[in-house]
What we know:
Blueprint (H helix, E strand, L loop, with lengths): L1 E6 L5 H5 L10 E8 L2 E8 L2 H35 L1
Antiparallel strand pairs: 1-3, 2-3
Amino acid sequence: xxxxxxxxxxxxxxxxxxxxxxxxxxxxxxxxxxxxxxxxxxxxxxxxxxxxxxxxxxxxxxxxxxxxxxxxxxxxxxxxxxx
Length: 83
Protein backbone atom coordinates (compact mmCIF):
# COMPACT_ATOMS: atom_id res chain seq x y z
CA UNK A 1 0.00 0.00 0.00
CA UNK A 2 1.18 3.50 -0.77
CA UNK A 3 -0.01 6.94 0.27
CA UNK A 4 1.24 10.45 -0.35
CA UNK A 5 0.35 13.48 1.74
CA UNK A 6 1.28 17.09 1.05
CA UNK A 7 1.91 19.42 3.98
CA UNK A 8 1.95 23.20 3.39
CA UNK A 9 4.55 23.96 6.06
CA UNK A 10 8.05 24.91 4.94
CA UNK A 11 9.74 24.82 8.36
CA UNK A 12 9.18 21.23 9.54
CA UNK A 13 12.31 19.52 8.22
CA UNK A 14 14.15 19.73 11.55
CA UNK A 15 11.04 18.61 13.42
CA UNK A 16 11.00 15.34 11.49
CA UNK A 17 14.77 14.85 11.43
CA UNK A 18 14.64 13.01 14.77
CA UNK A 19 11.64 10.87 13.79
CA UNK A 20 12.03 7.24 12.80
CA UNK A 21 11.35 6.94 9.08
CA UNK A 22 10.45 3.28 9.48
CA UNK A 23 8.30 1.34 11.95
CA UNK A 24 10.26 -0.92 14.25
CA UNK A 25 8.60 -3.99 12.71
CA UNK A 26 9.63 -2.81 9.20
CA UNK A 27 6.01 -2.90 7.93
CA UNK A 28 5.91 0.77 6.94
CA UNK A 29 8.28 3.59 6.09
CA UNK A 30 8.18 7.05 4.61
CA UNK A 31 10.30 9.42 2.60
CA UNK A 32 9.97 13.16 3.14
CA UNK A 33 10.66 15.45 0.16
CA UNK A 34 10.66 19.22 -0.05
CA UNK A 35 8.23 20.71 -2.58
CA UNK A 36 7.63 24.30 -3.68
CA UNK A 37 4.61 24.44 -1.34
CA UNK A 38 6.08 22.66 1.69
CA UNK A 39 6.81 18.96 2.11
CA UNK A 40 5.47 15.69 0.79
CA UNK A 41 5.42 12.41 2.66
CA UNK A 42 5.49 9.26 0.54
CA UNK A 43 4.45 6.31 2.68
CA UNK A 44 4.92 2.67 1.80
CA UNK A 45 3.24 0.04 3.96
CA UNK A 46 2.67 -3.70 3.81
CA UNK A 47 -0.92 -3.47 5.09
CA UNK A 48 -3.64 -1.05 6.22
CA UNK A 49 -2.76 -1.28 9.91
CA UNK A 50 0.87 -0.37 9.24
CA UNK A 51 -0.22 2.47 6.96
CA UNK A 52 -2.50 3.84 9.67
CA UNK A 53 0.28 3.59 12.26
CA UNK A 54 2.66 5.58 10.07
CA UNK A 55 0.03 8.21 9.26
CA UNK A 56 -0.80 8.53 12.97
CA UNK A 57 2.85 9.12 13.82
CA UNK A 58 3.17 11.83 11.18
CA UNK A 59 -0.08 13.56 12.09
CA UNK A 60 0.71 13.53 15.82
CA UNK A 61 3.99 15.32 15.14
CA UNK A 62 2.19 17.82 12.90
CA UNK A 63 -0.43 18.42 15.63
CA UNK A 64 2.30 19.28 18.14
CA UNK A 65 3.87 21.61 15.55
CA UNK A 66 0.55 23.40 14.94
CA UNK A 67 -0.16 23.80 18.66
CA UNK A 68 3.31 25.19 19.34
CA UNK A 69 3.04 27.55 16.38
CA UNK A 70 -0.31 28.81 17.70
CA UNK A 71 1.13 29.35 21.20
CA UNK A 72 4.12 31.25 19.78
CA UNK A 73 1.81 33.45 17.70
CA UNK A 74 -0.32 34.23 20.76
CA UNK A 75 2.77 35.18 22.77
CA UNK A 76 4.03 37.40 19.97
CA UNK A 77 0.64 39.11 19.68
CA UNK A 78 0.54 39.59 23.47
CA UNK A 79 3.95 41.28 23.43
CA UNK A 80 2.87 43.55 20.59
CA UNK A 81 -0.19 44.65 22.58
CA UNK A 82 1.94 45.44 25.67
CA UNK A 83 4.16 47.85 23.75
